[in-house]
Amino acid sequence: MAESKKMYLNMGPHHPATHGVLRIELELEGETIVNATPRIGYLHRGIEKLAENRNYQQIIPLTDRLDYASASANNMGYCVTVEKLMGIEVPKRAQYLRVIMAELARIMGHHLWIGTHALDIGAMSVVFYAFRDREMIMDINEEVAGYRLTPTFFRIGGVAHDATPKFIEMVRDFVKWFPKGLDGYHKLLTENKIWTTRTMDIGTISAEEAVNYGFTGPSLRGSGVAYDLRKAFPYSSYDDFDFQIPVGDKGDVYDRYLVRMEEFSQSLKIIDQAIENLPEGPVTVDNPWISNPELDEVQKDISALIRRFMIHVKGPVAPEAEVYHAVEGAKGELGFYLVGDGSEHPYRLKIRSPCFYLASALPRLMIGHMVADAIAIIGSIDVVLGEIDR
Amino acid sequence: MGIENYLQGENYMVTSLTKLVNWSRSNSVWPCTFGLACCALEMIASTLSNFDISRFGSEVFRPSPRQADLLIVSGTLTKKMSVMVKRVYDQMADPKWVIAMGSCSSCGGVFQTYAVVQGVDQIIPVDVYIPGCPPRPEAVLAGLMKIQEKIRTERLDQRPDFTG
Amino acid sequence: MSYKNVIQTINKKFPEALVNECENKGQREITLAKSQFYETMRVLQENPDLPYDLLIDILGIDYTPRTPRFDLVYVLLSTKDFSRLIVRLKAEEGEEIPSVSSIWHSADWAEREVYDLMGIPFSDHPDLKRILTWKNFEGHPLRKDFPLEGKDFDKPFDPETIEDYT
After folding, report:
1. Residue C133 is nearest to which of B115, B118, B123, comparing CB atoms?
2. pTM beyond 0.95
3. How many structural domains comprise chain C?
4. What is the CATH number of domain A57-354?
5. C149 contacts in B (CB within 8 Å)?
6. 8 Å CB contact of A43 and B37
7. What pLDDT, in 10s, does the model give residues B95-112?
8. What is the pLDDT of residues A268-310, one digit of tens each?
9. Is A357 close to C133, i.e. CB distance below 8 A?
10. Which CATH number fits the domain that encloses residue C126?
11. Among candidate residues A83, A157, A82, the one with its CA nearest the CA of residue A346
12. Strand pairing class (A23-29; A7-11)
């Protein structure tokens, strides 16, 4: 009987999936994976060090580039943490607008997930439909903030400006159209024999092990633990809305797929409730040191001009305190640990990224499977490298 | 439409070899997917149904550098990744062109830190820069058209890979 | 009620471990001493009243020029009643901290990141290597005496100087 030798295969940082620059070193015996070592750091840009040299307002565009597939959700996490540190109360209309943008971002992130996951497994047509729907959300982003991919619409204490009637009409049109698009994905994939064979009983992880590995978000809910930060630690008036949390039971790739598909409809429900019950009122907090004065005031009054200058150059000042706050990003618990030191720069900003812990569990999920299943597993945990490497 | 309009008589056509080669090269530029960060999503959006890039001749995006002509570096280039970029560029067969897409690969972008290379042109020669953070898909298509214009006005004996 | 039971258990088993216990902006926080730190963390994870089974994050804060220089912060969550606990530990420069990666697997990469960016070494770690920077990177970036732009920012960059783990 011939002895089998191990083969070392490098799934290098440059590979054709859009998951980014993730490198995995595989040890293979035949076609079966015996060991896997993920190596990260190919997109480490030093955002945490850069944040120590910038104002609180200037860090908001940096947080956009963390999980770049669903950009507004990161803004939500950072702004909510800074407001907890400084003790700022955001008005209701701004909270509802923030919820709409964050849930649209979650839908956008899940669209990228389903397009690329199906593309890797072999179902190529899904990515075209997914990006068609993504373009609709990018049009909404462009209407409200000017940017398609990274709208930095949030500010400390509220949002940048009020929603136009065109924005409300575009969101209503999206809410009316999207169930048909979602139905299309279900028809293509959910009962498809090839899809179920390639995704059932692959990458199974139990609830206790998933908790021990630090999983949060849809990957943890696929294993059966109902932990969602929107229900456990409600922020930004999420407790005004009525929605459910989908939970799987086996913890394989197919369960995580079903959890995310159901999250599409739940997010749509939240957006529908928010846009129908949008309250009237201001969109930033009424504090002269935080919110910008109106443009016509600036052009007429010297003190408003000075205030606008100070807000943009210096910005709000934090007390000497430390706080940890987390929000439900598209991939899991996105947490920010913020240390203030009495000045306008943070002393330390630590970003707890959900995909970091998901990627660290890749060896546990992949060992024993074949190389083609490894691709399905990477797609199912939905890593975005901008968040892992920061 | 097409070449049939120019055929007359015995169907001879007089042109220079440079023009023929440049015309065929410029209309079939096949990019290599080198998506590093956020700009990669806008590069993908420019290939899919809303902003179709294959009407410009870039029918397929080849993942292997040995089968591609154009390297679109989209996203932030970190020092750890720079070794891989050089390796991929060296593996590409001549003739090859490079587009630096986005602010991060043109000049370092927002990230002036210890781990980011301030522009991909410190490592490989760049032909076209596309600014933006991230640039719109129409900007990517405009950059591709600029590369096509550059290819059409090249002289074959002045290319860096000429060994005659 | 169960949180108070956990604090009493720790105080009974390891009377010198708990240095401080307070509440900061609605968040429970305890400060531990370095002696019997590993055993206290195991009690926090395994006790039947309120097991803190999800390690959310580990981070280091550099408080130069104070001694001890670093503060290690562990953020824990219990999936029984979804409550958080923040555990703090003070560390000197170069002092080795016992690793908790045998209690929670998520500590594996988190401790590697703290070692890479802050320079705090951990003992009994399965694979303590740099994770975000490269093998021959000099210094620890998130320390307060490391410049933002790094060394040699104004010179052109040569990729031959980068050596990584193969």
Report:
1. B115
2. no
3. 1
4. 1.10.645.10
5. 112-114
6. yes
7. 889 999 999 999 988 899
8. 999 999 999 999 988 888 887 888 777 788 888 888 888 888 8
9. no
10. 3.30.460.80
11. A82
12. antiparallel
